[in-house]
Design a protein that fits this description.
about 260 residues; alpha+beta; HIT family, subunit A; five-stranded antiparallel sheet; 5 strands; elongated
Length: about 260
């Protein structure tokens, strides 16, 4: 008789692998580190993470940051990104494990089998021909041949490598957006210096620096940048340009600082 050791399943049997939470698990997870929470990818509106108790190696989930119970409760941008990240997950799994197929879907509501019915999450499960063996049929038990930490490392690298619409493209688009915002905020400060208003110019340059640091913090923090943060940056830039225009008018009419 052969013995199959699956020590990571003990945390499921004893409940040691999951810490109790007063709130929603999927709402709490983004505040944790990637390795601790098994997060593979952080998008603008959704994120992808490994299932801690997988059906097969590479079993992952994609879920929105916002607490949404159903697809109809999600904003259109959330639904679009949910499927986009699921497609990236399919690409990452295909490149890493070469599965023969996938099960992709959501269980909406407890009666439909949802373990956390209040927060919708899409499962992406790689499948192989003949992966339902005697253990599953006779014992109702799945065997997973790879430790979760190893799976996380391999799939994290696959997600980071990018692909069609992948992380590399997202990072590039964020870089272009940051450059545009920096330029939009830099011009008023330079304009103030040219107008002979060094104190206000220095203040404007300070705002540029604070804005860039805030943007970096958002980009690298536990929560992805939001549309509200981008709108705040644009409003700041618009106000600074308006002040530059007013100061230019004052200079033209002979007023001084």
């Amino acid at each position: 008789m052969e013995i199959l050791y699956t020590p990571w399943r003990m945390s499921y049997l004893t409940g040691e692998g999951v810490k109790p939470s007063d709130g929603c698990l999927f709402c709490d997870i983004p505040s944790k580190g990637d390795a601790e929470a098994l997060i593979l990818y952080r998008g603008a509106r959704v994120y992808a993470l490994l299932n801690r108790f997988p059906y097969s190696s590479g079993h992952l989930m994609v879920t929105p940051y916002a607490h949404r119970a159903t697809l109809r409760a999600m904003a259109p941008d959330e639904r679009r990104e949910l499927l986009d990240v699921a497609a990236r997950a399919e690409s990452a799994l295909a490149a890493t494990y070469s599965p023969h197929g996938f099960n992709v879907g959501l269980n909406l509501g407890r009666s439909a089998g949802a373990g956390i019915p209040g927060h919708a999450h899409l499962h992406v499960v790689p499948r192989w021909d003949g992966d339902t063996n005697f253990m599953t049929v006779l014992g109702g038990t799945r065997t997973v041949p790879e430790d979760l930490d190893v799976t996380w490392g391999r799939l994290s690298r696959a997600f980071a490598a990018g692909g069609p619409g992948g992380r590399s493209r997202l990072t590039a688009s964020r870089g272009r957006a940051a450059a545009a915002v920096a330029l939009a905020l830099f011009v008023p400060g330079l304009g103030q210096a040219v107008l002979g208003r060094p104190r206000r110019g220095a203040a404007f340059f300070g705002i540029v620096l604070a804005t860039l640091l805030t943007g970096l913090a958002l980009d690298r923090g536990p929560v992805a940048p939001t549309a509200e943060a981008g709108a705040a940056f644009l409003v700041t830039a618009a106000l600074m340009h308006a002040l530059l225009c007013l100061d230019t008018f004052d200079r033209a009419t002979g007023r001084k600082e």
